[in-house]
Amino acid sequence: MAITKRRLPTFLQFAKSPNLSQKLMLIGLAITLFFIFLAFFAPVFQAWGWLQNPKDFLSNPIHEPPSAKHWFGTSRLGYDVFSRTLFGAQAALQVVILATGLSMIIGVPLGMLSGYLGGKLDKVLLFIMDSIYTLPGLLLSVTLAFVVGRGILNAAIAISIAYIPQYYRVVRNHTVSVKTEVFIEAAQAMGASTWVVLSRYLFFNVIQSVPVLFTLNAADAILVLGGLGFLGLGLPEEVAEWGHDLKQALEALPTGIWWTTLFPGLTMTCMVVGLSLLGEGLNEFVNPRLRRENRIRN
User: Fold this and answer.
1) Long-range contacts (CB closer than 8 Å, 24 or more residues apart) made by 14-23
2) What radius of gyration, in Å, describes the C-alpha atoms of the chain?
3) pLDDT digits over 30-84, tens only?
4) What are phi and psi of 264, to 5 degrees?
């Protein structure tokens, strides 16, 4: 009897599946790509500028409702809300990519080293990471933002610290389970160095969950950035940012000025939902056990 090699389902097969969670993942992917597209081409789409010439805004009507000229209306300073929303997406993506990228670059190698080498290094890193993990992410980011100051890079650093333990813990646990496999022991017996074992044999076997963490942390980072902006600790005031715009808009909300709150808030919510759906779908895609359980339930 011929033995056939078992293959994991391709992405196309995954997309054609009737499973509801997989369809939601594709919806999340579409939403995420849409906002990436808008953020990348923000200078092309906006027709009024945002702070290129602040004097021009003084001639715009203050708190003008949505119209053909200003699709999302104008703010209390005469800023075009549509332009601010587009550039807010651009700023959010920059901070999110930097924050999640920094936490991944730091957390993944530390998790591999800790799980593979063990000993005192593992105990010290576990203690540090567990201590950071017990702190609320927003509170930690707010505290760090006071220290590092405002700006895209500074906001990314303040946000990234809270996510490092997540990458560390996931990768370390995978490393501890994989390092006892036969192929790792064979490489060690052949005299492979620690660097060779980590980079060639361990890395691609312990990062399955990293893309899932990346998308879920990106969704959370958008909310944290919005919180920092709302508190005045995120980006400089001259940079379009949803949290700061929402803070300014709330002052006019009791007077019936709804559009300056609705559009930035709705955009932030849609972007977070898209990334969350994408992350949950990726989790099922990379985890065969979840696919089997969902197939049984359906």
Assistant:
1) 14/285, 18/298, 19/284, 19/291, 19/294, 19/295, 19/298, 20/298, 21/280, 21/281, 21/284, 21/294, 22/281, 22/284, 22/285
2) 23
3) 999 998 888 888 777 665 554 433 445 455 567 777 877 778 888 777 778 888 8
4) -65, -40
Half-sphere CA count of 51, side-chain side, radius 13 A: 12
3-state SS, residue 80: strand
For 242-282, the pLDDT digits (tens) are 888 888 888 777 777 888 888 888 999 999 999 998 888 88
Q: How many CB atoms lie within 10 A of CB 186?
A: 11
CATH of 21-35+70-297, one of 1.10.275.10, 3.90.79.10, 1.10.3720.10, 2.60.40.10: 1.10.3720.10
Give the CA distances from residue 237 to residues 177, 220, 245, 296, in Å, rounded to whole numbers and listed in that order: 48, 22, 9, 52
What's the CA gap between 174 and 197, in Å, rounded? 14
| β-bridge mates for residue 2, sequence order | none
